[in-house]
């Protein structure tokens, strides 16, 4: 009888451990809910764009407002794409200069 209790306890522990393990189809995305547009009254402190990875198959756009609130924007909406395009157009790329001396012999 005591062995049966041990077996049931072992099965219960195994079931609990299996339940807490992430499944292969479960993605670890930052954005569970997304907004379609920005709220102009909040203002934007920071915008971070995360490309798809092995952990999350979606592109994610995380915005931090001036009030410190973080929210996600839907990258598939035209208004969000226009916003990102306008921001990227304003940012001037910095030239990359190399100071390394690479010696190649042909």
UniProtKB/TrEMBL annotation:
Alphabetical GO biological process terms: immune response
Keywords: Cytokine, Signal
Statement: the UniProt record of this protein carries the keyword Signal: yes
Residues of the signal peptide: 1-18
Domain Chemokine interleukin-8-like: 26-87
Pfam families the record matches: IL8
GO molecular function: chemokine activity
GO terms under cellular component: extracellular space
Residues passing through the membrane, by range: none
Coiled coil recorded as keyword: no
Protein origin, superkingdom: Eukaryota
Family annotation (PANTHER family): PLATELET BASIC PROTEIN, SMALL INDUCIBLE CYTOKINE A
Record-given protein name: C-X-C motif chemokine 10-like
């Amino acid at each position: 009888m005591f062995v049966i209790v041990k077996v049931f306890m072992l099965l219960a522990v195994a079931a609990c451990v299996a339940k807490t393990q992430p499944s292969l189809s479960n993605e670890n995305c930052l954005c569970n809910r997304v907004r379609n547009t920005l709220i102009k009254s909040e203002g934007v402190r920071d915008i971070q764009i995360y490309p798809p990875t092995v952990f999350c198959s979606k592109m994610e756009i995380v915005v931090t407002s001036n009030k410190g609130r973080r929210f996600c924007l839907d990258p598939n909406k035209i208004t969000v794409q226009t916003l990102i395009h306008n921001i990227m157009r304003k940012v001037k790329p910095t030239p990359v200069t190399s100071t390394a001396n690479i010696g190649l012999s042909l």
